[in-house]
Amino acid sequence: MDFSDSFRIVNLAVGVIMALGGISQFFSNFGFQSIILGVYVLLFGLATALLEFQIPPQVARYASFMFSFVGRGIFYVFIGSILLDNNWMRIVAGSIVGIVGLAYVVLEFVPSVEPPANMREADQGWGAEQV
């Protein structure tokens, strides 16, 4: 089955939720840690959303985990756990991102679901890097 458009919409929505969660992180405690976490989550959210439109060659080389369901799922669970905080908006955002991440990890083991084309760009197998 081909769910490429559905995965693209879900990844774009998760990127937007990450970016909004990163922005909301700035207003949590006004501490140095909140600012650093907010910047990272905001950048990860923008990068995730931009990967749906264009894939820079550096991403395929240094962040190849974003091109498999397991890698992207674990990344989403990680960012979702960073977003979880004492504010209801960040709890909702972190839960959504984490649940999508868990769903992606499960989808890796469903043989009838293939990753979309933009998640197969770097899938050349182990040791296929060009020198």
What does this entry look like structurally?
Helix 1 runs antiparallel to helix 5 (88-107). The protein has 131 residues and is mostly helical. Helices cover 63% and strands 0% of the residues.
Question: Layout of helices and strands, plus pairs?
Answer:
Elements lengths: L3 H22 L6 H19 L6 H6 L6 H15 L4 H20 L24
Helix pairs in contact: 1-2, 1-4, 1-5, 4-5
Give the count of helical stretches. 5
As a whole number of angstroms, the C-alpha radius of gyration is 15 Å
User: What class, by secondary structure content?
Assistant: mainly alpha
Query: Helix proportion of residues, in percent?
Result: 55-70%
Pick out the low-confidence regions: 125-131
**What is the CA-CA span between the terminal residues?**
35 Å
**H-E order:** HHHHH
Mean pLDDT: 83
Number of strands: 0
Largest sheet: none
The gross shape turns out to be globular
Strand content: under 5%
Which structural traits does this protein have?
mainly alpha; 0% strand; disordered C terminus; 5 helices; 131 residues
Task: Provide a short characterization of the protein structure.
Helices cover 63% and strands 0% of the residues. The protein is mainly α.
